[in-house]
Amino acid sequence: MTSPAPAATGRARSTSPHAKEYETIYILRADVDAESAERIQARVADALEREHGKLVKVETWGRRKLAYSVRKQRKGVYVYIKYVGGGGLVAEVERNLKLQDAVVKFMTVQTSDEVDLAALQIDPEEIKLGKIELPAEDEKEESREKLLGLVDLGPEAPKPPRAEEGEDFESDEGEETAVSKDEPEET
User: Fold this and answer.
1) 103-118 burial, b for 16+ CB within 10 Å, e for fewer?
2) How far apart are CA 62 and CA 75, in angstroms?
3) Tens digit of pLDDT for each residue in 49-108?
C-alpha cells in the first residue's frame, strides 16, 4: 500500500480570477520635491507588482491645506491610487508608505469585495506614474495677529463697520433689566 504525498507546507497563492478593490490616499509633506514623490510612487508600484496586484488608477490631487496639522505640517500633497489584488497587498503597500519620511499620513479603504480580473479594463493613461508637478507656493500664511485684526494694516486697509452713535448700549423698550442677586431690591 502506498501512502499519500505529504501536504505542502507554506502559503500557496490563490490563482482565483476574483480579487478585492482598494483605494489608498497618501499625503506627502508640502515641501517634497518632485523626484522624491516619484520615488515613492515607484516604490508603491513595485509593492503592487510583488504582491501580484494591479494598479487601476493614479491621481495627484496637488498641494492642499490639511484639516488639522499632522507632524507639524499644515499643508500636504495628496496622491490617490486605486488597485486590485489579494489580502496581503494592502499590508505591503502600507508598509512601504510607513518607511518613507516624506509620507505624512495615509489611509486605505476597500471599495469592492469581488472584482473579476478577466473583465477588468485598465486605461494605460490612468495608471501612468508620471511627473508630479508641484507649483511653487506663492501664498503666504497670514499671521495670527493679522487674522485677529490686532495689527494695523495701514490707511488703505478696509475698516470694520462701526455702530451708529447711541446704538451701542440701547436696550429695547419693554425689556426688563436684570437685577443682580447681590444687591437688595428697592421697595
Assistant:
1) bbebebeeeeeebeee
2) 10
3) 999 999 999 998 889 999 999 888 899 999 999 999 987 899 999 999 999 999 999 999
The percentage of residues in the chain with a pLDDT greater than 90, rounded to a whole number, is 37
Q: How many domains does the chain have?
A: 1
Residue-range definition of the domain harbouring residue 78: 18-116
Contact 104, 29 (CB under 8 A): yes
| Predicted TM-score of the model (pTM) | 0.62
Q: Using the predicted structure, report yes or no on whether residue 176 has a pLDDT greater than 70.
A: no
Report the alpha-carbon distance of residue 84 to residue 48 in Å, rounded.
Answer: 9
How many CB atoms neighbour CB 153 within 10 A?
A: 10
Q: Cα–Cα distance between 154 and 57 in angstroms, integer? A: 50
Q: What is the CATH number of the domain that holds 67?
A: 3.30.70.60
Q: Is 72 left (phi over 0), alpha (psi -120 to 50) or beta?
A: left
